[in-house]
Amino acid sequence: MSQSINKPPYFNGVHYSHWKNRMMIFLQSVDYKLCDIIEDGPNIPKKIVGEVLIPKDRHEWSDQERKQVQLNAKAMHILLCALGPEEFVKVSSCDNAKEIWDKLEVVYCVI
Question: How many distinct structural domains can be found in the chain?
Answer without folding.
Answer: 1
